[in-house]
Amino acid sequence: MKLRLPFRLFPDNLKHFGLIWVINMTVPVYFLLQLPFREAWIGYVAVAILALAFRQGLWNTDRRFAYALIQITSVAVLGYLYNPSFLYFGFYCIMAVGMLPTVRKVAFSVAYMVIAFVLVMYLFYEKAGEAVHLDFIPSLIILAVLPFAMNSHRKAEELRKQLRYANDEIERLIKNEERQRIARDLHDTLGHTLSLITLKGELVERLIPHDPERAVREAKDIQTTSRTVLKQVRELISDMRSVHLADELRHAGRILSSAGIGFETAGDAERLRTTPVVMNILSMCLREAVTNVVKHSRAKRCKVELIENAGTYVLKVHDDGIGIDGAGSKLGQAGSGLLGMKERLSLIEGTLEFSKREETGTALTITVPNVVKRQQTEGNR
C-alpha cells in the first residue's frame, strides 16, 4: 500500500518565501483585471503556468530544469504582451535556476533568460514605436549573477552537511574502537585474574574442614590477587583517554556559536582537580547538555557555571529557551539523553536536577563528589 503524504504548498524551509511570492502574484492579476478578458486571458494562463511551475520547481528535483525554463518563458510572455515591468518576476525564476544540479544547466538557463528578456524589451518597444529603455539592464545583470551565487552557496552547504556526517561517522567509529579496546583490555587484564580468584575461593571452601592452615594461606593469596586486580583496574582507567572539562567547555563554545547561540561561562574549569573517571563523566554530561540546548531549546543564550563547594562540584547549564517539554516530538530524544546522564552520574554518586521556568528558561544542575578533596580530608584526619 502506497503511503499518501499530506499536501503541502511549499517546502518547510521556503514556506515564508512562498507566501510572499503568492502575495506578489496579485500584482499581474490586478493589472490583468483592468483589461478586457479577450486581451487578458493569455496573461491569466501565463500567470497560472508561472505559479504552477514555480511550485513544482521547488519540489520536483528531476524536472527542475524544465520548470525553470517554463517560468522564464511565462515571464517573457507577460513582459512582451503587456508590460516589460513584468520581467522583474524573473527574480522568482532564479530560485529554481539556482537549485539546478550542474553549472552547465545553470549557465544555459541564465543565457536563455538574458536572451529572452532582452528580446522582449526590444520587440515591445519596437512595437510601441519607442526607444528601448535601458533601466532594466542593471537588474538583468543581477538576474544573471544571482543563480551562480545561489548554486555555489547550495553546493557549499551540501559539502558542509557531508563533512558533518563524515565527522559524526568518524566519531562513531572512534567510540566503537575505544569500546572494543576497553573490552579487550578488561578481558586480557582481568579475565585470568578473576578466574584465578574464583578457583582459589572454591579451593579454600574445600580446605577449611581438612587443612585450615593451608586455607588461610590460600585466603591471603586471594587478598593479594584482589589487590593486584584493583591496581590493574586503576591503571587501566588512568590509561583511558581523558577529556578535561576545560577542553569540553571550549568545544561547547564552538558548537553553540555555530548554532547562533550566545555562550557565557562562570568559574575556572582549568583548576578542576578530580579523578579521570569523574572528569570524563562530567565532560560527557556537559556535551549531552549542550547538544540538547542546540537541538531542542531554541535558545538565544546559554550559560555554563562551575561551582566548587565543600566536597562537591556543581555544574549548571542554563539557557533562555523553551525547554525539552516544549519541543514536541523531540521530547523522547532529549529525555533519553537526560536518562543517560543520570545513569553515568549514578556511577560516581552524582546527581542531576532539571527545571524549567517560563520566565527564565531551562536549567540543568549536575552535582558530583570532589573525590580528591574527600581523600585529602580523610587523610588529614
UniProtKB/TrEMBL annotation:
Coiled-coil positions: 153-180
Name of a matching Pfam family: HisKA_3
Superkingdom of source: Bacteria
EC category: transferase
Gene3D superfamilies, per database record: 1.20.5.1930, Histidine kinase-like ATPase, C-terminal domain
TM annotation in the entry: 16-33, 40-59, 65-94, 106-125, 131-150
GO molecular function: kinase activity
Reactions catalysed according to its record: ATP + protein L-histidine = ADP + protein N-phospho-L-histidine
Keywords: Coiled coil, Kinase, Membrane, Transferase, Transmembrane, Transmembrane helix, Two-component regulatory system
Domain Histidine kinase/HSP90-like ATPase, first and last residues per copy: 277-372
E.C. no: 2.7.13.3
Protein name (record): histidine kinase
